[in-house]
Request: fold
Amino acid sequence: MSDTERKTTKPRTMITPGPRSGADVVVIGGGIVGCMTALELAKSGIRPVVVEKGAIGNEQSSRNWGYIRQQGRADAEIPLMVEARDTWASFEEYTGSNIGWRESGNLRLLENPQDVGWYRDWAVKGRAHDIPVEILQPEAISTLLPGSRGDWLAATYTPTDGQVDPVLATQATAAMAGRLGAVILPDTVAHSILVRRGKVIGVATQQGMIATESVVIAAGVWTRRLLADLGINLPLQWVRLTAAETGPVDGFPDIPTVWSRDVSFRRTQNGGLLFAGSSRADIDVMPSALNNVGHFLSTFRHNRQTFRLSVGKAAFRDLRTRLGSQARYAGWEPTVNARSVKRSFEALGKIYPELTDVPVARSWAGYVDGTPDNLPVLSCVSAIEGLVVGGGSSGHGFGTAPASGRILSDLVRSGVCERHDVSPFDLARFQSADFTSATTIAR
Ligand SMILES: Cc1cc2nc3c(=O)[nH]c(=O)nc-3n(C[C@H](O)[C@H](O)[C@H](O)COP(=O)(O)OP(=O)(O)OC[C@H]3O[C@@H](n4cnc5c(N)ncnc54)[C@H](O)[C@@H]3O)c2cc1C
Reply:
């Protein structure tokens, strides 16, 4: 008996999440990708059930910076991001909920000629997709960042980029999906995907089985483990990012979302500043990632300044994830990198010296699901009929989520997506002989 067949043993209870038994589609994961997928499925008349092991949006989708950024995107992602930005811009009107949308523009401060050259080239690509992109001289930077100090060579500015409050945006998406008929089940762990003779037949959850012929895995960093249980390998690295927020700052100007080499920052809804180290990330060493380390070597080699390896409790917790029970998910609250908070706050203080006396109100960390080429997986799984994967957002999947949700919904309904070229996001690419890892993860 194979592992996959062994998982077909029926649990005792059958969940009936509504008037009908079972579900048209089960979406595993109530982050922004799962919720957007559920919203799109519900819009097309399909009734999905979202199972979320905690609260809606409790992992990456509530911890991110909330940048809705077209600027600097990889070629394959540009069309998705243009579509997604337009959705975000009208999302408050569509859902009737405040999501903290501001068309603030995104400003990337540039310190060296290589980066200026890279962004000049990117501006040509962006404009080909009707994204207004400007390359700014230092005087224009001062206009966008009144009162700032800094010695920048230039900047690139995309006025139609923006920001949302990620907590509000994810909740608004789940609520809208619910209004259209999706069933949202928080505090419900999906233990395993049940497969018989190569076809999905259900999902075993802590409350029993949900019968279904269609499953979308949108489980963020846990996507790798759920696929591994089915014998499918997804090279995915857990990357730990730290962010922080000041309390309200009286009289601080309205500024775009900003990204410089040392610090990224934006205004928050409560009048403070959210800030984080732009190119600083921790990798918690985990045994389960070792078999895919070859896929990531070139990225690590080219981004030595960005990644810091950390050996600690995560390695032991990772061994426990093989247990395949609820214990798998316990105790994973990511540790805040206090040094990163200090360094990024100092970098912010160099740009705005008046902020050095403002207290830091809170800090937090989140695990990002990084793929070797820094592109997401939005894909059917050829070996298992009825299984679709939406994971590996690589630290920038909040902005693209409306488009990702539409793509995943198309894949569920017809097995293909005609609105975008999704071949760069295929799960099978990692097995291809000519697969190339990303060398640069952030410009
Ligand atoms: C600090 C930080 C800053 C970031 N900044 C930005 C940014 O500015 N802009 C941007 O576009 N992106 C940003 N990102 C990335 C962005 O947050 C993610 O790409 C996006 O939120 C991914 O959404 P998701 O739904 O795929 O994953 P998640 O939000 O992680 O959701 C996955 C969900 O699945 C649930 N789950 C997992 N396993 C199971 C199971 N077995 N059963 C039930 N539920 C399960 C989890 O509890 C979780 O809620 C940032 C990320 C971080 C951490």
